[in-house]
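Q: Structure tokens for this one, please.
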Amino acid sequence: KVNATDASESLTMVVMDPLAAPLSCPCVEGYAQRDYTILAKHLEAALNCKVAVVFSESLPAALKKTDGKADIVIGKQSVVKADTKLAKRAMTAISELTDLKGNTTQYGMIVVNKEDPATSVGDLGDYTIIFGPSEAEEKHSAAIQLLKAANIHIPASRQKIDDACSDGACKVIDLGPESKTAAVISSYAQPLLEGCGTIKKGDLRVVGKTTPVAFVTVFVSDSLETGLRQQITSGLADAAIRPKVLQALESLAGFVPLAASNSVAKKK
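A: Here is the predicted structure, written as tokens:
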């Protein structure tokens, strides 16, 4: 196990946050340009050890870049949980990142073409729905629950999957209102879709929103020594009083702690 007092030991931080600058685009000023290198420098000072940052959309892909090392993983909670199981890594969620409004959650939005006659989720009974992948909770399971709550059951033949919000959004626009097609997109993605010109403002209409789900969460490897994990948690909490770190992460209050019971992907 990595020892908290071993200053020569380096840590690897895998960033999967979709709003991190290398994983997003600079189309919207002051949004989706989170600079995690600033956080790494902050943690280096707090932990007295080197913190290397690797950006990746998935944990398995990141592990190929890091020779299998991932001490800290930061990303969409449902995606990281799915990826840790896939990679057979034991990691525990410790903190959540607040956004510029102080929220730690996001939600899914069911959208239709602006000319579509549907006005609510209850109108989608005979529609084809484009969901996100199963690991994207807000675009999949939360959306299915929203439909169920409205007594809408979409058979498998009318369920489609698109990884990117842009794909589903564009299909709804391109297919037209006569196609009876709706898509589920992430709330955080809407500003980017419009800002990048992928869709024009007003091209889509929201007919339903899911309940809020967890968003950007910090996970630490269970292989780290307990004292080091505690130091990481403290270092993250300390970011709340560091204006430069908050600005870099586009965050109002930095990281807020999670209960110690949020352990995932335990090896059996």
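A few notes: Residues 1-5, 260-268 have pLDDT under 50 and may be disordered. The CA atoms of residues 82 and 268 lie 16 Å apart.
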